[in-house]
What we know:
The complex is a heterodimer.
Chain A: H1 2-34
Chain B: H1 11-15, E1 22-24, H2 28-52, H3 57-66, H4 69-100, H5 117-130, H6 144-168, H7 170-173, H8 179-210, H9 220-223, E2 225-227, H10 228-234, H11 236-244, H12 248-251, E3 252-253, H13 258-286
Antiparallel strand pairs in B: 1-2, 1-3
Protein name (chain B): Cytochrome c family protein
InterPro entries (chain B): Di-haem_cyt_TM
Keywords (chain B): Membrane, Transmembrane, Transmembrane helix
Amino acid sequence: MNLLLGSVLTFFLLHTILWLIRSRYSQVKNKGANGGKNA
Amino acid sequence: MPELEQAPATAADATKNANGNYFVRFTREQRYMHATLFTTFLGLAATGLPMRFSESFWARKFATGVGGFGAILFLHKLCAVVLTIAFLIHLKDVVQRGIVNREKGIFWGPTSMIPNWKDVKDLFGHTRWFLGLGPKPQFERYAYWEKFDYWAVFWGMVVIGFSGYAMWFAPFFAHFLPGWALNAVLVIHSEEALLAVLFIFSIHFVNTHLRPDSFPMDMVIFTGVESEEEFKHKRTKEYERMVAQGKQRSRLGIAPPLWLINFSKVVGYAALFVGLTLLVLTLTAYFS
């Protein structure tokens, strides 16, 4: 049960952190071009 | 799995939208279902966590405030019954539309909630995009993480629900379940519920509302409509399919009124606040 809890949360936590970083990067990169709605 | 082509708006309504076209993503019934789901889920979490971490200071304070752990258990069961009814209504709706009416797109295809090969490809493609190794995938009506959310809730409803009712009506379930199973359901209920709480209040909140292109809240689940720009940006594949099939008109909605936007913000932010507070309290109790 702990393995299930830990692996699901770890996977999605990593997924979410990577997504946040990449979205922010894209947003900053494209800010001038289209108002930051390209993440 | 909505009946989106029964959108209430007409082309004339759409022309009244000052800020461009709006498209229907969720029907009224789906928004009510989500409202019931998150209200009862918050209620279940707010009453279940104090019982799970009954030794923590905040659980004892909360119990004192509402009239003791007996009152908390009563509220927990009340939320459970309401959520069970909502779940059964949803099941009936899926069976009615998918099996009885043989409606297309319920069990397979781009509008279905059933995971398919594209979801696997999108997961890997999205990960490559995170790492700067490829382009961002173009998503269909429901992206892979949204399907995961749906099935996590579905699975949770069955497992947490069944184990909860087994504890509630233990003498009845003892007729056909061995004694060890009745002990096991307590562990299953507690651990699965903890997983659900941690997942919803961290991953779901961030993926759906707090990520940069939705921050601070994705209002579509409250208003039911989204702007054309948002639709095109977030679900490019679905937008292109709609245009290719010439179904734009049937999907047109009307811009949400100001009262609905404000009401949604109040409700949504309150839910976020309660959820994040419960997350902090849970983590505090779990690691102490």
